[in-house]
Design brief:
- This protein folds into 2 domains: 347 residues, TIM Barrel (Alpha-Beta Barrel); 58 residues.
- Helices cover 49% and strands 10% of the residues.
- Strand 7, helix 9 and strand 8 form a beta-alpha-beta unit.
Length: 451
């Protein structure tokens, strides 16, 4: 394993401390934010046993697992070992205690029809999560609404479900839906996904430098106020940097990034640059490092990006397709727009198929070691109190070594190998996120009392 510069510095510091300690009882201690050097060699069997014991004692919490509601029925559900990355058998096998199931809605048109369809999709997912915990498997899993709920449910031997909302688009133009979503169990929400919403610009605007709001809309600013009031954590993972900076300014409560990593290590617009990371530290929030292969391995990201460009050129040429900018599309007749959109769908279909069959299998693998590299980087930059763990399972996440919930132990094992203590691992796995949830809910109660 490659030892990073700061790890060498820490090792030297520990050695110097030991020497000074021979002469003084007041010797300094190494920073608790950094992994500590092991004082004596440890056998592989002993290390594995120690890591397993730590894994069993800490509360392991993953802030992002997408769902398909067809897997939440009486006949097909998460009590079975389905072909999903998360389900109850896999959580049990891997020692994953808490899964945040996601009410995800893809971005569509900003009109009444779009909002109505999005709202129906969101309610269907809320209902599915409640159905699993309250009708299908109440003896095996329970929904938590507070950190105390999490600890109580884990102590009872059951798994824990929590609910996050990926994209506020289903709220439409009615800000009161935020309170409704909170009442249904939503405990964090992002204001955009892949596409600009009525609330905020998305990170995807970087691709063409086209923005709808240049940050937040006025409705988005109102949404932050409502989320603070009702105890919904503000999620920075998908909006644009400008929108995220505004949210950090406006929020009275700590924020989270539910599934993002460090942009300095992997230059993807879904990751957070150092300025945002430091602002989140200042805000008291937490960044949930995400095990998404192209967000944590720069070589893989570049390989896939270059491969997509090659494939797109080939497909576009074969279909005699020329991409138009939004102004050119707007100038088309209704028939022309329909034809152009149909051709774009065909281009996307062929490109995605070629990527899946020809490019992605050849890409460098992203591993648990790459994942923990991002944890290391953020711990060194913003402190261990502001870093957590997420997978994005069943939504594109999964890496070599942690490709489903049954392999969750491998993350703890890598942290132990790098010298993280049990206390630090407990913070990374759940302590930091639950601290933020507590603070968000405390501030919400205060705001409601002020009113």
């Amino acid at each position: 394993m490659m030892i990073k510069q700061w790890q060498w510095q820490n090792l030297i510091f520990v050695c110097l401390t030991a020497l000074v300690g021979a002469c003084s009882d007041n010797s300094p201690t190494p920073s608790p934010d950094l992994p500590q050097a092991v004082s004596s060699p440890e056998s592989e069997d002993a290390l594995l046993a120690r890591a397993q014991a730590i894994h069993e004692r800490v509360i392991t919490l993953d802030t992002h697992a997408d769902i398909d509601t067809s897997n939440f029925t009486a006949t097909v559900n998460y009590t079975m070992n389905l072909d999903t990355q998360v389900n109850l058998p896999k959580m049990e096998a891997g020692g994953l205690d808490v899964a945040w199931f996601i009410v995800y809605t893809g971005q569509d048109s900003l009109d009444a029809a779009g909002y109505a369809a999005a709202y129906a999709n969101a309610i269907d997912k809320f209902d599915a999560i409640h159905r699993l915990a309250e009708e299908i498997a109440p003896d095996a899993i329970e929904i938590a609404y507070t950190s105390d709920d999490v600890r109580r449910i884990v102590a009872s031997g059951k798994k824990v479900a929590m609910i996050g909302i990926e994209n506020a688009y289903p709220a439409g133009l009615d800000i009161a839906n935020i309170k409704d979503f909170q009442a249904r169990g939503g405990r964090y929400m992002s204001l955009a996904h892949n596409g600009h919403s009525q609330f905020a610009d998305s990170n995807t605007g970087e691709a063409d430098d086209i923005w709808l709001h240049n940050g937040l809309s006025e409705l988005g600013r109102q949404a932050i106020v409502e989320m603070n009031k009702w105890g919904v954590m503000v999620d920075l993972s998908h909006p644009s940097k400008a929108a995220n900076l505004e949210m950090l300014e406006l929020s009275r409560a700590p924020v989270i990034a539910s599934h993002s990593s460090a942009r300095t290590l992997t230059n993807n617009s879904r990751n957070l640059d150092d300025e945002l990371l430091l602002r989140i530290k200042e805000n008291g929030g937490v960044v949930q490092t995400v095990a998404f292969n192209s967000y944590i391995n720069e070589a893989r990201r570049l390989f896939l990006a270059e491969g997509r460009e090659r494939v797109l050129t080939t497909v576009a040429t074969s279909l005699n397709h020329t991409e138009l900018n939004p102004q050119q599309v707007a100038a088309l007749s209704e028939t022309g727009k329909a034809s152009y959109e149909a051709l774009m769908r065909e281009v996307d279909s062929q490109v995605n198929a070629a990527m899946r069959d020809e490019v992605t299998p050849q890409a460098p693998a992203a591993t648990v070691a790459d994942f923990v590299d991002h944890i290391d980087y953020m711990v060194a930059l913003i402190g261990i109190e502001h870093v957590g763990i997420s997978s994005d399972f069943d939504g594109g996440g999964g890496i070599e070594g942690w490709n489903d919930a049954s392999e969750t132990f491998n993350v703890t094992l890598e942290l132990v190998r790098r010298g993280y203590t049990e206390e630090q691992i407990a913070l990374l796995w759940s302590g930091n996120l639950l601290r933020v949830l507590d603070e968000v809910q405390r501030i919400a109660a205060q705001i409601q009392a002020e009113a």
